[in-house]
Amino acid sequence: MAKKVRITLVRSTIGQKPAKRATVRSLGLKKINSVVEHDATPAVLGMAKAVAHLVKVEELN
């Protein structure tokens, strides 16, 4: 079974560069406090790291 991560948008994308906004949208996040769960693949973890100042990442069992 693949590990999962829960990603929550905790800060607004207003004032961010378009690439950061696109990364947040591609993770499936729209509004503040929206939450998505993804498999912990290198691509998803890399995107989360790129916008770490906007999101909170939690590992799920």
Total helices: the number is 2
Query: How helix-rich are the residues, as a percent range?
Result: 25-40%
Q: Biggest β-sheet, characterized? A: 3 strands, antiparallel
Q: Enumerate the spans where pLDDT stays under 50 for 5 or more consecutive residues.
A: none
Order of strands, widest sheet: 2-1-3
**3D shape:** globular
Terminus-to-terminus distance: 10 Å
Descriptors:
3 strands, 61 residues, globular, alpha+beta
Outline the structure in words.
With 61 residues, the chain is an alpha+beta fold. Helix content is 30%, strand content 28%. The protein is built from 2 helices and 3 strands. Strands 2-1-3 form a 3-stranded antiparallel β-sheet, with no helix packed on it. It is globular. The N and C termini lie close together (10 Å).
Helix-strand blueprint:
Elements: E1 4-9, H1 18-26, E2 35-39, H2 42-50, E3 55-60
Antiparallel strand pairs: 1-2, 1-3
Q: What can be said about this structure in brief?
A:
The protein is an alpha+beta fold. It contains 2 helices and 3 strands, in the order βαβαβ.
